[in-house]
Design goal:
The chain is α+β, with helices and mostly antiparallel strands. The chain contains 5 helices and 6 strands. The strands form 2 sheets. Strands 2-1-6 form a 3-stranded mixed sheet, with helices on one face. Strands 4-3-5 form a 3-stranded antiparallel sheet.
Length: about 140
């Protein structure tokens, strides 16, 4: 259900942006999905299409494009950079699910593979955002 809530937020944001730009219709929405969110792309796309059908006439002919962005983490202690995907396979299903709902909780479950510090930053691949909206 997390994916449906994200889809509702994306549609609401796209409609506000289109209204601000005085679009008569939205022709395309490109959305980036950060890997750390661990959202199911198929569910998000389906939810977006279903919500768009009933939300507004502005969305009747909208192409929806999703693109994943790999998550990159950087240790604040030693400077080492690593991919979230490399450590994700070591997480339990429960830990992975916790990160899915609250990405900042990753600091509880993940440590730098080089120095074992839990002090790292998420450099790329966090969140879900609209890359751009095209309209007429």
């Amino acid at each position: 259900m997390h994916e449906w809530a994200l889809a509702e937020g994306i549609i609401a944001t796209a409609l506000k942006a289109a209204e601000k730009e005085n679009f008569q219709g939205i022709t395309k929405i490109k959305i980036k999905l950060g890997e750390l969110q661990q959202v199911d792309e198929d569910i998000v796309k389906f939810a977006l299409q279903e919500i768009a059908k009933f939300q507004s006439p502005m969305l009747k002919q909208t192409e929806i494009e999703l693109e994943n962005e790999k998550a990159v983490l950087k240790c604040r202690v030693c400077g080492h950079r690593w991919a979230f995907g490399d450590v994700m396979k070591e997480l339990s299903e429960e830990d992975s699910e916790s990160i899915h709902f609250v990405p900042d909780i990753a600091h509880v479950y993940i440590r730098c593979p080089k120095c074992n510090s839990p002090d790292f930053e998420i450099v790329e691949g966090r969140g879900v955002w609209i890359e751009y909206i095209e309209g007429e």
